[in-house]
Each structure stands twice: as structure tokens, then as C-alpha cells.
């Protein structure tokens, strides 16, 4: 090959190299976030479902913009009622629950805690932020933790009817043997809100612990069901939560009259309710996790979690 | 800002304020239909067909009867200056059509601007008593696929098919601060199409009233927004975020080729010869 031809050849090779690199770069740019692309802010999860088949959002970290959502709700001057039940030895969970709530739960919004207990003298003195209130309500003691758990439905029903109507816009009902570790904010608000149970969010339906005996009002036939929801956290508008608690209370009474107790108590009835009255929003297991020491791939942030407890030690019965 | 088109062709199914973005594959039609069938609802649907735009009515209505809220109670409200040109289209059970005569206009921009006022008045005078939901749709369009109860919600916007893949700074928002429709450069969630507005009657009323008021303020100052009422709609939706957003499946353009993300075209603007149908260029 002549000198000139070789030069041209080298220039050609160089050109090819540059051209291919550029094409590769451009291709990579368009498929990644880098290249002046519209996917700024990294919002949007494609590894988990962010809507249900009936188009209710499922709230995961990365699906919402806290600033945008906060500013929407700040304009609405809302009050969020929040109920917890701490009977018997469960009062020991109150300090952590309340202190961590002050740090993470609807910060900057008006929150009114309703604390039901049979030991009002055991309620710790926790300093609450501005526009945050706490009302202690005394209940009679009960001998069975299952009864305590189930009676919550009727108490909530009555609370909404008698007191909350003019006082709150939304209500959440939370278990007390828990703690907040991260933001729980207005992204969780909606007409009817269910929380996906942390042990059942990534298993097939046939493993869900629905009540499967037709004799119970909580019965869900095999092959049916959308999600397995936890009884440890649910909420929504007053009207909708009233309907939920009233229905569960009525159905539990029918079961009692028929001498049957659902497998997971009011959680079974809650799941039945949510099957036929679909939540308008679901919260991912970030909003009620197993234990702070456990992790799971899709759950990138733990906002609220059960705390480790010795059942035998805290429950009035086994 | 987040594009509705995610990585690797997977779509993003919620907005940053957690409103669902409706794409094929995100919902179960059977389930959604059964939820809404229990509610005994009426969906009012307004279209404007002035001047030569009456030629679009037959295809619009016939394709709507095949695809639009099939099995639900639908009441079309058809605004026209030529009622005699409204075609006789057979409607299914539970579906009716009311023709409302309006004055002619010799500017298409004027026609499009007046729609907000007409919608506002219609809701005030009739829809508050007659319907649960209302959709306001462009008429130079056709249905090609299911448009059903998955599209219902408190306040509904549709992502404009020409801008669902572009960055915010290239959205054709109104950029002149003198206009009421002004949106500053760094702001905006999506570019919504003016061809589709929907929601609860009361919420669509607020859209129509606000846009109409802002259009009037602009008119008094002799300024006309870049894309007429679509500019004002985009301004409204920025500060009053839709509770549900429809993907470009719900508003396509016949002349656009299909893309990977938009797997089904449900409603699309037909190819038209502007000179032939518009009263003015």
C-alpha cells in the first residue's frame, strides 16, 4: 500500500472508531439517565407495582415527590386523627411510639392522637410538637389479647361517630408495639388506605392467611383476593373508616354468635372488607415492616415497623 | 420532573403526586367495570362541531358507540351552529344525545376559546343535575379502542401525544409573563392535551370557570396564549394537579407512527386538511 493510501486508511479507521464510539455513547445516553434526558430526579419505580389493577396507587419510596405532595396538602388545613391501643403491659411501647412519631409521622401537620388504655397512669409524658395533641381514653381491662385486638373495631366506630366528625379529616389506626424510623407523611392519605402486610407482599395468593372457613363472616374463597393487608395499620376518611370498622364489628359479632373466631381476628375481617371495598390507596410494606433488623430488596426504606417483643411477657394470655 | 416513560420501555404508572397514569396493562377492565357498574353513574360528554367540523361527527359518534364507556349511561352534548348537519347515528341503550345550537364564528381560535365558557354554562344549568362525570372532547377525532371506567376520577388530564417524551423546558407552555397562562421555564409536570378534560362535574366546572376567567383577562389585554385554551389548561393543571392522568393512548394523532410505549391507540385526532375545515388559517 502506498504511504498516501495508508494515511487515508488510518484516517478512515480513526473516523470509524470515533463514529462508533459516538453512536455507542449516544445509545447509552438515551438508555441511561445521563445525556440531558428527561428522566431527572430518578422518580418512578419499575421494579415494583406502583398501581393496583383498579388503579389505586401503591406508595413506595421513589414513586412520589414529598415536596410536591406536602405543598398540596398544606393548602388544605387538615387534621389527622390517630388511634393507638395500649392495654396492660403494652403501655411500655408508648414512649418509643410517640417520640418516634413526633420525629417522622405527618411532621408539620395537625395530628391528634387518641390513646386508649386501661392504665392511664402509665402513659409517658412525651413532649409533642406544635399543633400536635394527645387525648387519653380509659378502657376496662381485658383478659384475652385477641379480644383486645378485636374490640378496637367497635371502639373506633364509636369514636368516629361521637367525637371525630367535626375534628378530623383523616384517621389512621395503628398498632402500638411499633416505632417510626422514616417519613410517614401525606403521601399516605386517601379515602380508604390499606397497608400491605410485610410477610405477604412477595408471596403468591395461595399462601395468604385469609379466613377460609365458609362459616365465618370473614370467609374468602380460594382463588380470590388482591393483597393480604395488615390489621396493624389502616386509615382513610372518617366516613370510609367508619364504614370499615362498623362492618368489621358487625361481622365479628355474627361470628361470635356462631361460636367461631376468624383465624387472624379483626385482620381477617379487614381483609374481607378490603376485597369487596377496594382501598383507594395502598401503602407498601415500608409503612409497616417486620422488624428494623430485617431487610428485603424492594423495601428500600423502613418508615414504621413492629418492634421485637416477647409475646409471653407482654400478652395477658397466650 | 418525571417523564411518564420509564427506562427500558417500562412505563411509569403514577405521577410524583401519586395520581395513577393510565396505560394498557396497568388495570383490569373487568374489575374496574364492575366497581363502577355498581355506582349507577352518568357520564356527560361535550363536543363542539362548528362550521365544517360537523363532518367529523359521524365517525366520532359511531366509533364512540363501539368503544367509549360501553355499557354505561352516556349523554352527549353536541354544540353546533349547524344542527341540521348533525348525522343520525344510532345510539345504544342508556345513551342519548342533545344538540345545542350556538352562534357561528369566523376564527377557529375564537371557537376553541369559547368552549370553556360554554362548558361552564352547561354544567351550571344542566350537568349538576344530570351527570356524575363530564368529559370534554375534541370532535376531529375517532375512537379506535376501549375508553372505559378506568378513565374516571375527580380531575382528569391527558398527556399530549407530541410531548410525552420531551423535557419540560421544551413544553410549549405560554412563556410570556403578560399572559395569565404563563408558566416559568423551570416549572411544569407534563404537557396536557386540551382535546380531553374530564372529572367530576364540580371539578371540571372549576377548570372551565378558571380558564374562562383567565382567557377573558388575556383578551382584555389583547393577548392570546400560544395554544389558546390548552395553554390555560396547562396552567390550571400545574397548580391543581389532576387526580388521574391518561397516557397518550387516550389522545393520539393519526399521523404519528406507533411507538414502543403506546401499545394501543384508543382515541386519536384524525388527519385533516386544515384549509378545508377551518374558517380561517
UniProtKB/TrEMBL annotation, chain A:
GO molecular function (one): hexosyltransferase activity
Gene Ontology terms: biological process: carbohydrate metabolic process
Subcellular locations according to the entry: Membrane
InterPro entries noted in UniProt: Glyco_trans_6
Cofactor requirements of the protein: Mn(2+)
Bilayer-crossing regions: 7-30
The record's free-text note on cofactor binding: Binds 1 Mn(2+) ion per subunit.
Binding locations of Mn(2+): 175, 177
Residues annotated for an alpha-L-fucosyl-(1->2)-beta-D-galactosyl derivative binding in this entry: 197, 209, 267
GO cellular component terms, A-Z: Golgi apparatus; membrane; vesicle
Record protein name field: Globoside alpha-1,3-N-acetylgalactosaminyltransferase 1-like isoform X3
Organism of provenance: Cyprinus carpio
UniProtKB/TrEMBL annotation, chain B:
Subcellular localization: Membrane
InterPro entries reported in the protein's UniProt record: Glyco_trans_6 (IPR005076), Nucleotide-diphossugar_trans (IPR029044)
Cofactor note: Binds 1 Mn(2+) ion per subunit.
GO molecular function: hexosyltransferase activity; metal ion binding
Main location class: membrane
Keyword Metal-binding annotated: yes
Catalytic center residues: 230 (nucleophile)
Coiled-coil intervals: none
Any Pfam family matching the protein: Glyco_transf_6
Cofactor(s) the protein requires to work: Mn(2+)
Family (UniProt): Belongs to the glycosyltransferase 6 family.
Name of the protein in its database record: Globoside alpha-1,3-N-acetylgalactosaminyltransferase 1-like
Species in which this protein is naturally found: Cyprinus carpio (Common carp)
Amino acid at each position: 500500500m502506498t504511504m498516501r493510501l495508508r494515511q487515508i486508511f488510518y484516517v478512515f479507521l480513526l473516523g470509524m472508531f470515533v463514529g462508533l464510539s459516538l453512536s455507542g455513547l449516544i445509545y447509552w445516553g438515551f438508555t441511561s439517565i445521563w445525556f440531558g434526558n428527561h428522566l431527572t430526579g430518578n422518580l418512578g419505580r419499575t421494579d415494583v407495582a406502583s398501581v393496583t389493577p383498579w388503579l389505586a396507587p401503591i406508595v413506595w419510596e421513589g414513586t412520589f415527590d414529598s415536596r410536591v405532595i406536602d405543598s398540596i396538602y398544606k393548602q388544605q388545613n387538615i387534621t389527622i386523627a390517630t388511634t393507638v391501643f395500649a392495654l396492660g403491659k403494652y403501655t411500655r411501647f408508648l414512649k418509643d411510639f410517640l417520640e418516634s412519631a413526633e420525629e417522622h409521622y405527618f411532621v408539620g401537620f395537625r395530628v391528634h392522637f387518641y390513646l386508649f388504655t386501661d392504665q392511664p397512669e402509665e402513659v409517658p409524658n412525651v413532649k409533642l410538637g406544635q399543633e400536635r395533641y394527645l387525648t387519653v381514653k380509659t378502657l376496662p381491662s381485658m383478659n384475652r389479647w385477641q379480644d383486645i385486638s378485636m374490640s378496637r373495631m367497635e371502639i373506633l366506630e364509636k369514636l368516629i361517630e361521637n367525637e371525630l366528625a367535626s375534628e378530623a379529616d383523616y384517621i389512621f389506626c395503628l398498632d402500638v408495639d411499633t416505632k417510626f424510623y422514616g417519613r410517614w407523611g401525606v403521601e399516605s392519605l386517601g379515602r380508604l388506605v390499606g397497608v400491605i402486610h410485610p410477610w405477604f407482599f412477595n408471596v403468591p395468593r395461595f399462601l395468604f392467611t385469609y379466613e377460609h372457613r365458609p362459616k365465618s363472616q370473614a370467609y374468602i374463597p380460594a382463588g380470590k383476593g388482591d393483597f393480604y393487608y395488615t390489621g396493624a395499620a389502616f386509615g382513610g376518611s372518617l366516613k370510609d373508616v367508619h364504614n370499615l370498622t362498623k362492618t368489621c364489628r358487625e361481622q365479628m359479632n355474627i361470628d361470635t354468635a356462631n361460636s367461631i373466631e376468624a383465624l387472624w381476628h379483626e385482620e381477617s375481617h379487614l381483609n374481607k372488607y378490603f376485597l369487596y371495598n377496594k382501598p383507594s390507596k395502598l401503602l407498601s410494606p415500608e409503612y409497616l415492616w417486620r422488624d428494623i433488623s430485617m431487610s428485603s430488596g424492594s423495601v428500600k426504606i423502613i418508615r414504621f415497623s413492629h418492634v421485637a417483643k416477647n409475646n409471653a411477657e407482654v400478652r395477658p394470655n397466650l | 420532573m418525571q417523564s411518564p416513560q420509564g427506562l427500558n420501555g417500562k412505563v411509569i404508572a403514577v405521577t410524583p403526586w401519586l395520581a395513577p397514569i393510565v396505560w394498557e396493562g396497568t388495570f383490569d377492565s373487568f374489575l374496574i367495570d364492575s366497581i363502577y357498574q355498581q355506582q349507577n353513574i352518568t357520564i356527560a360528554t361535550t363536543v363542539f362541531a362548528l362550521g365544517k367540523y360537523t363532518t367529523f361527527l359521524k365517525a366520532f359518534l359511531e366509533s364512540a358507540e363501539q368503544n367509549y364507556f360501553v355499557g354505561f349511561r352516556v349523554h352527549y352534548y353536541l354544540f353546533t351552529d349547524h344542527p341540521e348537519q348533525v348525522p343520525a347515528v344510532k345510539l345504544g341503550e342508556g345513551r342519548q344525545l342533545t344538540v345545542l345550537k350556538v352562534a357561528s364564528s369566523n376564527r377557529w381560535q375564537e371557537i376553541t376559546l369559547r368552549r370553556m365558557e360554554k362548558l361552564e354554562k352547561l354544567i351550571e344549568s344542566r350537568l349538576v343535575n344530570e351527570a356524575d362525570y363530564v368529559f370534554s372532547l375534541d370532535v376531529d377525532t375517532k375512537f379506535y379502542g376501549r375508553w372505559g371506567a378506568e378513565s374516571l376520577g375527580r380531575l382528569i388530564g391527558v398527556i399530549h401525544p407530541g410531548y410525552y417524551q420531551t423535557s419540560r423546558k421544551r413544553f410549549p407552555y405560554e412563556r410570556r409573563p403578560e399572559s395569565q397562562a404563563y408558566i416559568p421555564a423551570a416549572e411544569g409536570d407534563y404537557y396536557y392535551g386540551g382535546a380531553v378534560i374530564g372529572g367530576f362535574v364540580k371539578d371540571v366546572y372549576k377548570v372551565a370557570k378558571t380558564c374562562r376567567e383567565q382567557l377573558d383577562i388575556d383578551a382584555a389585554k389583547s393577548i392570546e396564549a400560544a395554544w389558546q385554551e390548552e395553554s390555560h389548561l396547562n396552567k390550571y393543571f400545574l397548580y391543581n394537579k389532576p387526580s388521574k392522568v391518561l397516557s397518550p393512548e387516550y389522545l393520539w394523532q393519526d399521523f404519528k407512527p406507533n411507538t414502543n410505549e403506546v401499545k394501543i391507540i384508543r382515541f386519536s385526532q384524525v388527519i385533516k386538511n386544515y384549509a378545508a375545515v377551518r374558517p380561517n388559517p
